[in-house]
Design a protein that fits this description.
This protein is α+β, with helices and mostly antiparallel strands and 222 residues long. It has two helices and twelve strands. It binds calcium ion.
C-alpha cells in the first residue's frame, strides 16, 4: 500500500511538472531536491493564501463590535477610555448598540460626537516605506443638527483626509453610508490612525468598518 506521503509527493510533483525517481542514489538525491522544492513551494503558496487576512489585521476592532453595547441603546466613552483596541483621545464618543441605527458591518458603529466633540486613535504596525490604504464607511447621526457633519482622519498627527456627510433625507434605519478611502506612506514600523469630529454639539459623524491594507497586497489606485 502506498504511503500517504509518497502519494502526496508524487501527486504534487506531477502537478508541478517534476518527476520523482524511487531507486538508486541519484534517484534519492532527486527526490530530496524535489521535497525541498515542494516545501518551498508550499511555504510560498501558504504565504499567498494567508496574505489577505494579514493585510486586514493590521488594525483591530475596525467594525466597533467590541465591547457589546445594550441592544437599542448606546454607550458613551470619554477621553482616556478604550473601545477595544481604540483609545478615546479627546472629548466623548458614542458606541451604538444593535438596532439603534443602521450599520455597514456587524451591528455596532461609532458616532464621533458624544455630548462633546470626540476623537479615537489606534496604533498599527507597518512596514517602513510602504503605502497603506485606509478605508471606512461614513454617515451621520440623523436626529440632530447640523445637517452637514464634518471630521478628519489623521495619520501620525497629520491630517490625511477631511470628510463631510449630509444627513438630509437620512434616518436611523436608512443612514446612507458612503465608502471613504485614502492612502498614506508609512516611514516607520508603526503609525497612529486617528478619527476626529470637527462638528460641534452632540450629533456628529458616524463611522463603521475601518480597514487598513498594505498596497503591497492589494490594488491601490491612489
Ligand atoms: Ca460594525
Amino acid at each position: 500500500m502506498k504511503a500517504w506521503s509518497d502519494f502526496f509527493i508524487t501527486r504534487t510533483a506531477s502537478l508541478l511538472g517534476t518527476r520523482t525517481h524511487r531507486s538508486g542514489r541519484s534517484g534519492r538525491r532527486r527526490r530530496i531536491f524535489t521535497v525541498v522544492g515542494l516545501t518551498s513551494a508550499l511555504i510560498t503558496v501558504g504565504a499567498l493564501v494567508s496574505a489577505p487576512a494579514d493585510a486586514s489585521t493590521q488594525l483591530a476592532n475596525g467594525s466597533f463590535e467590541t465591547p457589546v453595547v445594550t441592544v437599542g441603546s448606546y454607550h458613551r466613552f470619554s477621553a482616556g477610555e478604550s473601545i477595544g483596541a481604540w483609545t478615546v483621545t479627546t472629548g466623548t464618543v458614542d458606541l451604538s448598540g444593535a438596532g439603534l441605527w443602521e450599520t455597514v458591518d456587524g451591528v455596532q458603529s461609532l458616532e464621533l460626537n458624544g455630548n462633546t466633540p470626540g476623537a479615537i486613535s489606534q496604533r498599527i504596525s507597518t512596514l517602513p516605506l510602504t503605502k497603506y490604504k485606509v478605508s471606512y464607511w461614513l454617515a451621520g447621526e440623523t436626529i440632530g443638527g447640523p445637517s452637514v457633519k464634518t471630521g478628519q482622519v489623521l495619520v501620525n498627527g497629520q491630517v490625511a483626509q477631511n470628510f463631510s456627510f449630509d444627513i438630509t433625507g437620512k434616518s436611523r434605519p436608512h443612514m446612507g453610508y458612503v465608502p471613504m478611502e485614502f492612502t498614506f506612506l508609512s516611514l516607520g514600523t508603526s503609525a497612529t490612525l486617528q478619527f476626529a469630529t470637527t462638528t460641534t454639539y452632540a450629533y456628529g459623524p458616524v463611522i463603521d468598518d475601518v480597514k487598513v491594507d498594505s498596497c503591497l497586497l492589494i490594488l491601490c489606485l491612489s
